[in-house]
Design brief:
Strand content: 15-25%
Number of domains: 2
Distance between the termini: 52 Å
GO molecular function: hydrolase activity
Keywords: Hydrolase, Signal
Radius of gyration: 20 Å
Number of strands: 10
Oligomer: single chain
CATH class of the largest domain: Alpha Beta
Enzyme class: hydrolase
Mean pLDDT: 93
InterPro entries: Beta-lactam/transpept-like, Beta-lactam_cat, Beta-lactam_class-A
Low-confidence stretches: 4-20
Helix content: 40-55%
EC number: 3.5.2.6
Largest sheet: 5 strands, antiparallel
């Protein structure tokens, strides 16, 4: 009994030591200094893929996805493409009933106009078009099917809430979708490693996510010569970004998400966006150059 106990204790100690060794303590200290005075809640998870070094600050807390929910929606569509239930260049007919009021490009289409599925996907991920995104969510087989896919990938908290049966209470708290910083990084890493559906589908998703129109926040601190796959989002009291940065020194992924922000302005100097740029700059200085 004593030997078994000692062996179990040794395994636990080794596991704890391994986690400690993979935590970038100096970077964590700098990030905690950056976030100390933030007026709201902030979660950050970072992983340098070559070394396995990580930093976690409220990384397992649940936050609103805002438009980052469009990554799970994209996976839902790729699942349909993989099953041959949709085709990438398939023509679809836009209907006025699909309109989600806002400044979206797709919403300016006339009833009955034709558009390829591939272009709807581009509008969702590149310009974050909400009309396109909700159309794709329905084409993916509703939020429930997308949530099944997230569960199959081992993601416990990343879920679509809007227009999804049984998710009304979650929607009232988190909005369209919910996630954690750790799960967003995990999902992006699985895509990077070709583990979502298959390598071809994962590669295609990276290409699509590499064309982000909204590049004035965290993306803006990086040289334009560096490939970045990303998705960001914003609602009144939350700002969020998840980036895969293919840096010369090795790729790294980070996700920063806020909630309960006091600053609910829609200007570039919103406290959440300022923090995202500062975090991105610190990471580029550490892992990028």
């Amino acid at each position: 009994m004593f030997n078994r106990f000692c062996y179990a204790l040794l395994i636990i100690c080794i596991s704890i030591s391994s986690v400690a060794q993979k935590t970038d303590r100096k970077l964590e200290d700098k990030l905690r200094q950056l976030t100390a005075d933030f007026k709201g809640d902030v979660g950050i998870y970072i992983k340098q893929l070559t070394t396995g070094k990580t930093v976690a600050i409220q990384a397992d807390s649940i936050f609103p996805t805002a438009s980052m929910v469009k990554i799970p929606i994209l996976i839902g569509i790729m699942d349909k493409l993989n099953k041959k239930e949709l085709s990438y260049h398939q023509p679809l007919i836009y209907k006025d009933s699909l309109l989600y009021e806002g400044e979206d490009i797709l919403g300016s289409f006339k009833d009955g106009e034709t558009i390829q599925l591939a272009k709807i996907m581009m509008l969702m991920m590149t310009t974050s078009d909400n009309t396109a995104s909700l159309w794709l969510q329905s084409l993916a087989g509703t939020g429930s099917r997308i949530n099944e896919l997230m569960a199959q990938l081992g993601l416990e908290h990343t879920r679509v809430n809007s227009r999804t049966p049984g998710r009304k209470d979650n929607q009232q708290i988190y909005g369209w979708g919910q996630t954690t910083p750790r799960e967003m990084v995990t999902l992006m890493e699985m895509i990077y490693r070709g583990q979502v559906i298959d390598k071809a589908a994962s590669d295609q998703m990276l290409r699509i996510m590499g064309r982000n129109f909204w590049d004035e926040e965290a993306i803006s601190v990086h040289p334009p010569t560096v490939f970045i796959a990303s998705k960001n989002g914003a609602v009144n009291a939350s700002r969020s970004e998840t980036l895969l940065v293919m840096a010369p020194k090795g790729p790294y992924i980070f996700s920063i998400i806020t909630k309960n922000q006091q600053d609910q302005s829609w200007e570039p100097e919103n406290e959440g966006w300022v923090l995202a740029r500062k975090v991105a700059a610190l990471l580029w200085e550490k892992y990028g150059k």
